[in-house]
Amino acid sequence: MATYKATSWGRTRTPKNILSGHRAGINVSGDGLAVNNTTSAVYKTENQRYLIVEVTAIAGGNVVINGKMTAGSGTARVLSPQPTISAVGVHIIDINGIDEVSFTTTANVTLFAACSTF
Q: Which domains does the chain have, with CATH numbers?
């Protein structure tokens, strides 16, 4: 008999990295996502409730969170109200109903991102 393995995160109590399959960051070394005055790739949230963004470096500007809902137009749009991050630290954003996110920056930024149900 085959062993059942869930293909989605389901409800999560601890933040799960959305940038890669690694426990933290974008690679085995745990490096954060570097976004330099542009928009990042799109990352799946699997419809979790909260997006937790840790900004470890920011050179003057800010980070804007873009959201995309699969059942909608399919176009990534700035979340409303617009969560704008302009300081190093951990930021928790309610993204209820958003399937994918991307990050637009006006500075050189290094960040980590995770999602959680609670």
A: 35-116 (2.60.120)
Partner residues linked to 118 by β-bridges: none
Instruction: Say if residue 112's pLDDT is above 90.
Output: yes
Cβ neighbors of 25 (< 8 A, separation 6 or more) are: 17, 19, 31, 32, 33, 112
- The alpha-helical segments, DSSP class H, found in 1-118 are none
Distance CA 113, CA 86 (A): 15
Q: pTM value?
A: 0.84
Q: Cα–Cα distance between 86 and 64 in angstroms, integer?
A: 9
Q: Is the bond into 83 cis (omega within 30 degrees of 0)?
A: no
